[in-house]
Specification:
Helices cover 18% and strands 33% of the residues. A hairpin with a 1-residue loop joins strand 36 and strand 37 (543-544). The radius of gyration is 29 Å and the shape is globular. The N and C termini lie far apart (108 Å).
Length: 658
């Protein structure tokens, strides 16, 4: 090839290379993300929430590849019904850098939000160069108006009815179901079912609606139950179990606290249900199913022989087998009781923040069983410790082993992590076999292998733990629903021979989104951080507690000391916001903030007003603001907070509830 041709070939190669490269650049540019994006569009610190109260707050975050990018202005637009529906609020362009907890209708120009309605919203942001970015359309749904619904309980309620079953079966229109919402709460805690399917099972939650001062208010929850309906359904059955929870547990002095007087007979602690289900069909017509005394039945015969925070849980699978189908259509309720309606004197407000969810399954790591004859030292005299075990006679088990436990023997199972938890198992046993599962946080020092239940409150939480009565019908599955406690070990005994196929500790918490992560080169420091997180998970259950094994109380000093760390470790904004509400409800009732909130018993300790404890009412809203930029709680409760500090300034040396 001569020099001229080589030169031309070189030019062609360069041109071809440039054209290919240019094509590549075009392809990359076409798929590149914008320089600036708005993310995490939230209402009330939640993504697309349903069942919101009036006047929600709006937040978003700005992400940019441009160094120094910043928000200079924003505009929020809210549409009713769909993304192009009626505009109910348009802030216009606001010259403001704020992007957290912007209150609906802060400018007085918004329309009143309607109940049981979906709204869509967007936020547009102007940056320092005048360029705009917009959030993806997000939505929220407002809460229930409760039209037509009444609180119900079983007719002729009597003391000793620890739990109740409720059900209604009603005809459907036969039209296509577009959406369905269930609004529900109870006094005490509930489990809801639609056509036999557990509603909370979708969320793996327990002990709803959570702990509040029930003499003042309780929460309700909203569930999207659209998928529970098939278009050929002719009827729908809504059922619920209402148990003890915190409401009538020995944890609280319920009658002294006014719980009994808040509803029905002031001498009784009636288990009650309050619910409304709204079914929207494809043609936009609706059907409502509400708790009333015409369409509901109730039964005091339930599988739960005992339940409660202090009382533990005793589940009778034989009774459950006899009740098979109670929450499904076509069940015979001829021997069930009618219900009566009651008036609740407290408020019913929307919130999921006090519910407890599954956090992590902790499978059994190891176990051993022994007989009392294998104990080779005398009892040390403690109520809770046995003697040393001769492990040459003990049986050892590993994960996946079938465990054959003989009547009278003791099994010690280790789950590897101390945590607030329920229990789940699969077992086969003769009908009527009683299986006891006693929780413990540690094995005794100095007595090899012996089991320590911990320091319990005599006559109060000594019943904590799990008890199962077998039906004898093959391999049975059990998951505790109405009790949790702190443990790493379970001491399991049975009065007949049993076989365990699976055994798990189900760690539970009201928080689950971890937001703070740190790992160091020091294993001891890493363990300290892990312990701190597990302590938070285990004590953030409906309210922040001092411990999940003994008192379960909402000690306010513990909460305020840990609040800042808590908000670094996990997304705790709504959980601590719920506790701020609880503290201020306490103030509105008693005229001061307490050491323990909610009120538990009319005791000496709860009458004391201690610096660092009652001061949680000031410190936690401040920490909340520092961590979220949200001043809404400080604004809402400013009057109470300043009144309290003035009282302490004037009388702090001698101030108390009594």
């Amino acid at each position: 090839m001569n020099k001229k041709n080589r030169y031309i070939s070189g030019l062609l190669a360069v041109a071809l290379g440039l054209s290919v490269t240019a094509g590549s650049f075009t392809s990359v540019a076409a798929t590149e993300q914008p320089v600036t994006q708005l993310v995490e569009a939230q209402v009330g610190h939640q993504t697309n929430p349903i069942g919101m109260e009036q006047n929600p707050t709006f937040s978003w975050k700005m992400q940019s590849k441009q160094i120094g990018a910043s928000q200079q202005a924003y505009q929020i637009v809210v549409h009713k019904g769909n993304e192009n529906g009626e505009i109910v609020w348009d802030t216009g362009k606001q010259q403001d850098t704020k992007s957290t907890a912007i209150q609906y209708n802060f400018d007085g120009n918004a329309k009143q939000l309607e109940p049981q309605t979906r709204y869509y919203w967007t936020a547009t942001v102007w940056d320092q160069d005048g360029k705009t970015s917009q959030t993806e359309p997000a939505y929220f749904e407002t809460g229930c108006n409760w039209d037509g619904a009444s609180w119900i309980t079983i007719q002729n309620y009597e003391d000793g009815m620890d739990s109740l079953l409720f059900r209604t079966e009603q005809k459907l229109s036969g039209k296509e179901v577009a959406s369905a919402r269930l609004y529900i709460t109870g006094l005490g805690d509930y489990e809801a079912y639609i056509n036999g399917k557990e509603v909370q099972g979708e969320l793996n939650s327990i002990l709803a609606p959570g702990w509040t001062d029930y003499s003042s208010y309780t929460h309700y929850q909203t569930y999207d139950v659209t998928d529970y309906f098939a278009n050929d359904d002719q009827t729908v059955t809504l059922g619920a179990i209402v148990g003890t929870g915190w409401y009538d547990s020995a944890l609280v002095d319920a009658k002294a606290n006014g719980y009994a007087a808040a509803i029905g007979d002031e001498k009784l602690m009636e288990r009650c249900l309050y619910a409304k289900m709204v079914i929207t069909y494809a043609d936009n017509t609706t059907q409502e199913i509400v708790t009333d005394n015409e369409n509901w039945k109730a039964s005091s015969i339930t599988p739960y022989e005992e339940d409660g925070i202090y009382e533990g849980e005793t589940f009778n699978a034989s009774v459950a087998a006899d009740l098979e189908g109670w929450n499904q259509s076509g069940y015979d309720v001829s021997n069930w009781s009618s219900v009566e309606t009651l008036q609740y004197k407290g408020d019913v407000t929307a919130s999921d923040d006090g519910i407890i969810y599954d956090y992590q399954e902790l499978p059994m790591e190891s176990a051993y069983s022994y007989n009392t004859s294998d104990i080779i030292t005398a009892d040390a005299g403690s109520n809770y410790a046995q003697g040393e075990i001769d492990f040459t006679k003990a049986n050892s088990y590993q994960p996946g082993d079938e465990i054959h436990l003989k009547a009278g023997d003791t099994l010690i199972a280790d789950f590897g992590q101390n945590a607030s938890a329920t229990v789940a198992l699969q077992v086969s046993a003769p009908a009527g076999t009683k299986i006891s599962m006693q929780p413990g946080e540690c094995l005794s020092d100095g007595k090899d292998g012996s089991f320590t239940k911990g320091t319990l409150i005599p006559g109060a939480c000594a019943g904590r733990g799990f008890r199962y009565i077998a039906s004898g019908e093959g391999v049975e599955s059990y998951r505790a629903q109405f009790h949790f406690t702190g443990y790493q070990y379970l001491e399991i005994k049975a009065d007949q021979d049993i076989t365990l196929y699976n055994l798990s500790s189900m760690a539970v918490s009201s928080i689950d989104k971890e937001t703070g992560f740190i790992e160091t080169s020091d294993e001891l420091l890493n363990q300290f951080i892990s312990n701190s997180k597990w302590s938070q998970v285990s004590n953030f259950n409906s309210v922040p507690t001092d411990c999940p094994t003994r008192e379960y109380y909402g000690w306010s000093g513990d909460a305020q000391l840990f609040a800042e760390s808590a908000m670094y470790h996990f997304d705790s904004a709504n959980f601590l916001g719920n506790y701020i509400d609880i503290m201020n409800d306490f103030y509105n009732t008693y005229g001061v903030y307490g050491n323990i909130m909610p009120m538990h018993t009319n005791s000496f300790f709860n009458k004391l007003i201690g610096a660092g404890w009652a001061d949680a009412s000031i410190i936690i809203p401040w920490v909340y603001y520092q961590q979220t930029g949200d001043l809404s709680f400080a604004k809402t409760y400013w009057k109470q907070m300043t009144e309290y500090t003035d009282k302490i300034a004037a009388n702090g040396h001698s101030y108390s509830l009594g």
